[in-house]
Structures are given as structure tokens and as C-alpha cells.
Description:
- This protein is α+β, with helices and mostly antiparallel strands and 233 residues long.
- Helices cover 31% and strands 22% of the residues.
- The protein has seven helices and ten strands.
- The relative contact order is 0.12.
Amino acid sequence: MVEWLNKTISEQYKLVRVLRSSGKSDIQVLRHKTLDRDIIKRVYEGDGEVYRILQGISHPNIPHIYEVITDGATTIVLEEYINGITISDELQDNVYTENATRTIARELCSALAALHSLGVIHRDIKPENVMINSEGIVKLIDFDTARLFKAYKSGDTSVIGTTGFAAPEQFGISQTDERADIFSIGILMNVMTTGEHPSKNLYKGKLSGIIEKCTQIDPNKRYFNALSLAKEL
């Protein structure tokens, strides 16, 4: 099936550019040869479990997933192309105001509430994985490292996450749940408002208390879910 999909894609689409290429994943922008429509083709090592779940939902802050094909080891995903910029791009020139940060964080909370209701934990919320499209809508992207919460598990199958943004429990302390994503949003909000990690420069405005609660080492001391954080914001 993977080989068949690759052949079908090459017949219908042409390569526009490569966004990322490494030993574990390859992300490309493709354009339909007749419809002139762009999509994202994602190839990564994994079983595609999370992307198959996402294929069945529609949410304004989550890219639409068109197709998921896997052989159990390698997965190909065709997903919505987002015309916009990442928070990382914006931070090259400016930090965000507190009001803008609150607005973006609330939209991320909406996306996370939908994901968490399905048991999906993103595990890699960072400036590079949050986009603002041409209409000003926030999109949470890149679910390659996402996992499903399983109540019977004592820990994650794989230790993974971006250092500085990942919650401590992602590095083998316990199984990650929705509070791991809350931790990452807290770090993200601080970086958006100061350009730095809170360990170096904690934001001094009204958001500081919210950021501190999000980023507690003990998950039990954080906001217990995305909706409670959104309400506080």
C-alpha cells in the first residue's frame, strides 16, 4: 500500500519544496498537476495510529488529514497545506504582546481539548509547531511524536520531546498525559512574550502566574486540562 500510494502521488503531484528531511522523517510540499492545489506529504517512522484518529476529526486549529497509509513501520500522511508562518518565524523579529499570546494560547487550548478527548497527547508543542495562517487562525501541526494515552501504561513507549519545551515526565519519569502539553504551552507563552525560556527570564506581566502554574515540575500542580487553562486565560 505504501508503494502504491507513492506511485499515485508521483503521478498526480509535483514537488514544490522539501520542508524537512532526516533519517526518521521527510516532509514535502506537493502541488497537484491539474488542480494547482498544494498539500503536505509526510513520511516518518511509526505506525500512524495518531494520524488515523486525526483523519476522522475536523477542527479549525488542527490541519485536515486526507490520507494515511502505513505498513506498520513507515507511515505516509497527506495533509492540509497551511499558508502562513510559524511562531518561530515571527520571533525572529519580534516578541508577542500579552494579549496576542493569550489569544493564540486559547486557540491552542481548543485544539488540545479536542485532541485530549480522543486520548491524543501532542508532546512537541513549540514555536516551530504552531502556525498562524493567512486568515489569522492558529494551527497546531506535526503529530509525528504524538501518542495515545493508555491508562494501563506506567510510562511512555519512547522517550521523546524537544529539550526546554518537553515536560519532565516525557523523559522517563512516568506516562505523559494532557498535563505534559499544558507544561509545553506554559514554556511557549514565556518564549512568545520574552523570547527566552522561563528559567532564564520569566515574563513579568499578568501572565507570569499562569506560566508558572503551567510549568510546575509536579504535574499535579499544573492546570489539570486544557479547558481549565483556557478559562484562566
